[in-house]
Specification:
Blueprint: E1 3-7, E2 23-29, E3 37-47, E4 58-64, E5 70-76, E6 78-86, E7 92-98, E8 106-114, E9 129-133, E10 138-142, E11 147-148, E12 154-155, H1 156-159, E13 168-170, E14 173-175, E15 180-181, E16 187-188, E17 192-195, E18 200-203, E19 215-235, E20 241-246, E21 251-255, E22 264-276, E23 284-292, E24 296-298, E25 301-303
Parallel strand pairs: 17-19
Antiparallel strand pairs: 1-8, 2-7, 3-6, 3-8, 4-5, 4-7, 9-10, 11-12, 13-14, 15-16, 18-23, 19-22, 19-23, 20-21, 20-22, 24-25
Length: 304
Amino acid sequence: MFLKIYLSYELNVSSLLVSDRSGVQMIDCRPSSTDGYVFINLKVFEIISNTADCEDDFLVISSVFPDGKETRIGRYCGSSYVVNLVSKTNFVKAEFHSNNRFVGKGFLAEYRTVANYSCDYFSCLNGGTCYFVNETKHLKCRCRDGFGGDHCQTDVVCSSSLCKHNAGCQNATCICSENFTGRYCETLINSVVTITEFPALINSLNYPLPYPANITQKWILLAPHVIVLRFKYFSIDSTSSSLQLFNETDTMATLTGTVLPPDYFARNEMNLTFTVGTDLYDSGFSGFLIEAVAGTYSHHFFYF
């Protein structure tokens, strides 16, 4: 038979165990039997903390020995997960800490006495494995790379914002945006893009968000007639960045600053190279490319 403990610390929601959601609330989980161990099925609905280490609101469950000494079984925060745990004694103490900054749905702990202290009663989430530590005589989880916590319940990668360059994150894995790679999407794949269909849109990496440091982007524009490059927005840090324009034989311009450049024209081919150093970065550029299907130009004027 399971006994139940439920704690909610939402505002205006009554609690079975606490009347004030701030401070430390201690709950004894001592079955009537003096034999065996305490098995707990813990359902964490919502214990709010802004860090993966549970530094704001958290629940600590510990085994208590006859001499009063305590050994921590686990420290819990987060939301929407279920774990099983077992004590080293027949006396368990649950301490709920709240710093009075957050409100949440809390947790539900169901407990009963079991005969064995083993991994059968100790769950490790997200592919982790349970093992017995001989030196300290307690159960522990060996977590997969990217997960942490006493039961591997914490996605360390996603919760710690380790993914870079606007990457997504799911199941402790960074989902890199285009042109980036690496464990945390930290490495740019310097790509060369060839454009032959117009109109086309070219923009700096991450635009309209700031572009990252230490990148090089290149575009090759090919057309049977005249190519026109028309800027819609332009803001490049002149101390560390530049956009260079080339025709088939010469450098047409090296652009920096925040003044919107004029239109640029080239026949058949135009190359662009955007280079950013390791210093701070600005907000990038964006431009339209259009092809004149049939025409010539002279001194930046079209003749059809």
